[in-house]
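sorry to bug you again but im stuck and you know this stuff better than me. theres a chain ive been looking at and ive put its sequence and its fold in token form underneath. id like you to explain what the token line says about the fold, in plain words if possible. anything you notice is useful, everything is just below.
___
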Amino acid sequence: MKKMINFIVGEEDGGVRIDKYLSEELPSLSRTKIKSLIDENKVTVNGEIIKPSYKVLDGDKIEISNILEVDNEINPEDIPLDIIYEDDHLLVVNKQQGMVVHPAPGNYSGTLVNALLYREEKLSNINGPDRPGIVHRLDKDTSGLLLIAKHNQSHEFLAAQLKDRTAGRVYYALVHGVISENSGLIDVPIGRDPKNRLKMAPNKQGKQALTHFRVIERFKEFTLIECKLETGRTHQIRVHLNYIGNPIAGDLVYGPKNTLEGEGQYLHAKELSIIHPETKKRIIFESDLPEYFENILSNLRNELKSELI
């Protein structure tokens, strides 16, 4: 049976060759398969046939037609999900730390997508077969609220809010160091790390990135802060906090190796606000900090108290 894949390029990937872009974005297709599809004129961008050297742009609509098979099938799996909200148009999932959002090379099982395919008959397909319903992403070791679209019309409506900054996203982060300011704005552009495309980095030629932060609680050597995203670049909070000298505790990619024990960075997507695609009314969703996060905060409070005695 022939299949069709269509999705929209995100801002952070502009300027990348389409053959390289597709090999990273569609892990279920081998690089050989992608090259042959381009050579056979089965890949179009905004309705036009392109060459492998074409560099994708933010907002490009890519369509891949007449795919007879994929190299790796993504199977539904009975994995429990913490559903905060659900209706005919969308889901809001409270993702646990350690769960990968969508399949990737070497990791086609145990993801959020596998769990969604088990419980949902219909999901949007705008972002291709590997990412049904996925409007935006959270890193594997970031916990918290995530939007899922049940159909393409809902997906486009929700994605537009993320792009035009009308959606609200609030994170809690535990960072190294004691931040003296009560609040601040980090305005530093972010782009792909030229030495490692899996990482992001401060880059004058990158996309504008704005992170507002507010101190919630100070400890002996750490600070709990609230971060509000005005833009949504890949790894934005992690890169920005490391840039100002306060990397997130547990972040071994952007922070120090000498950090708090745990399974990953102490970063939680705590609040999400959107305009509903049908009612056009704003809805606010909230999520409590995970138990492991609360436990480390309790330990830090006790440590601070013992210093004061």
